Amino acid sequence: MAQPKLSHEQGPLSPPVFHILLALAGEERHGYGIMQDVAHQTGNALRLGPGTLYGCLKRMLAAGLVEESDERPDPALDDERRRYYRMTPLGKRVVHAEAKRLFGAVTAARTKLAGGDA
Amino acid sequence: MTPQSGPIGMFCRIYSILLYAYPRDFRLQYGIAMQQVFRDRCRDMVRASGRLPKLRFAAHIAADWLTTTISERAVAVWSAGRKKTPRNFVTEWAVTIAIYLFATTTLVQAYVVPTGSMEGTIRVGDHMLVDRLTFAEPGTIGPHILPYREPERGDIVVFLYPEDIRQTYVKRVIGLPGDRIRLDEQQVIRNGRRLIEPYVRHIATYPDAYRDNFPLSPEASTTPRGRDMLERHVLNGEVIVPPHTLFVLGDNRENSEDSRYWGFVPRSYVVGKPLFVYWSYDAPTADLTDWTLDHVLDVAQHFFTRTRWERTLMVPRSQTGQEAGGAQ
Q1: For residue B76, which residues of chain A lie inside 8 Å, CB to CB?
Q2: From CA B198, how far away is CA B99, in angstroms rounded?
Q3: Beta A29-30 vs A66-73: how paired, if at all?
Q4: Residue of B18, B15, B11, B19 whose CA lies nearest to B45
């Protein structure tokens, strides 16, 4: 399934992709669960619309970052069956690499800006 | 779990139509899941109170839909350009354009306010989007699709001017079918109770016995429909609003050509309700109804100075007058 040509090798992940991966880090979720978790992570700054969400998931599936687990109802919502997603080992490596990259960027920014302020 | 399944069901049906703007493969793959997500967000929305979050939600969904239909289509065209026939894409794009047209004609309509009869609430030169769904009559699209409601007292409505349906007016609903209406010294008396109307502007002009004490002392400037109203629907010095019509007045009460002069608005002439102002531009009435070359040049020159930026995204609100000295 996983194709060798992966978008993450060319550069940083887009914010929606990064946050979707984070949302799937702990557990499997369905679409709305991902959306809620992303909103929670970012303090409501990033709200994914349905088109953005599934557009990203489609590309992430193609890149092998996530996979579908199964279809089952969410007891918290209603009895309707929903499609669940989980992160692949590759997705895990990618999100770790991205977090590391962001951490490096934040550290660099902090050093530079603190120097300027003090 | 779903206390207001009516409107949610309707929004979901509209959303399912909008999904046809996505490429076929994408829609078949994710359409159902997207509808589920949309419905879940609608349910959350119903719990949130206030109009602004709902507007923001609608704007967000619209923006998401617009950008992702375009990007998914671009991806589909690009990836298919390398393998398959181009004819599918012509039909696919035709569907998308048809859906865009549906969205811009059935759901909303742009409208510019040409006169100052609602001054204080809505200004000359306000360009706004009109929500065509809320007051749509059942049966125009199908009784099950629309979560329509009847206009209520205090609602601002956009409607076709009964004397000339090429013109579109905006006024406030004062009387519903069966209401008894009269004016006493510029004050509305509805069903025997004096209305306190905080939204009304009394911009002093010459006194006018008919305008201020409607429907006493009929005057000559009424239209045929207005005369019909005065002849057939006045009882004991009050107008009685007949079935399937509305009695409307402008908020700029002394400078408004409204139901006092041309009678009732048939329910079927109601177009919708103002959603929000997307652009407010200070221009004379004549320029707003017709886009002449002069007006285009005027806008080009004065766009930044004559645009009333503070009015952008303003929501004209329904506001019911309080009935003084009466029980609810």
Answers
A1: none
A2: 41
A3: unpaired
A4: B11
| A25 Cβ contact partners less than 8 Å away, ≥ 6 residues apart | A87, A92, A95
pTM for the predicted model, two decimal places: 0.62
Let me know: does B134 contact B58? Beta carbons within 8 Å. Answer: no
All residue ranges of chain A with pLDDT < 70 are: 1-11, 115-118
Whether residues B34 and A35 touch (CB distance < 8 A) is answered with no
pLDDT at A2: 38
**Total residue count of chain A as it appears in this document:** 118
Between CA B273 and CA B23 the distance in angstroms is: 33
Q: Please tell me if residue B65 touches chain A, with a CB cutoff of 8 Å.
A: yes
Considering only CB atoms, which chain A residues are within 8 Å of B1?
78
Q: Quick check: A35 contacting B, CB < 8 Å? A: yes
Distance, CA of B88 to CA of B262 (rounded, Å): 53
User: What would the DSSP string read from start to end of A42-59?
Assistant: TTTS----HHHHHHHHHH
Tally Cβ neighbours within 10 Å of residue B93: 14
Closest-CA residue of chain A to B32: A82
Q: What's the full length of chain B, in residues?
A: 328
Reading across the β-sheet that carries A66-73, which strands appear in turn? Answer: A29-30, A81-87, A66-73
H helices of B191-319, in order, are 209-212, 224-232, 259-262, 285-289, 293-306
The per-residue pLDDT for B325 is 53
Q: Please answer yes or no on whether A32 and B36 come within 8 Å at the CB atom.
A: yes
Residue B103: DSSP 8-state: I
Distance from C-alpha of B73 to C-alpha of B259, rounded to nearest angstrom: 49
For residue A42, CA distances in Å to A7, A15, B42 come to 23, 10, 21
List, for residues B131-140, the tens digit of each pLDDT value: 887 887 765 5
Q: What are phi and psi of B278, to 5 degrees?
A: -100, -20
Classify the phi-psi angles of B229: left when phi > 0, otherwise alpha if psi is within -120 to 50, otherwise beta: alpha
Q: Per the omega criterion (within 30 degrees of 0), is the bond before B215 cis?
A: yes
* B68/A82 Cβ within 8 A: no
Is the distance from CB of B205 to CB of B256 less than 8 angstroms? no
* pLDDT (mean) for B299-322: 81
Residue of B nearest to A83 (CA): B33
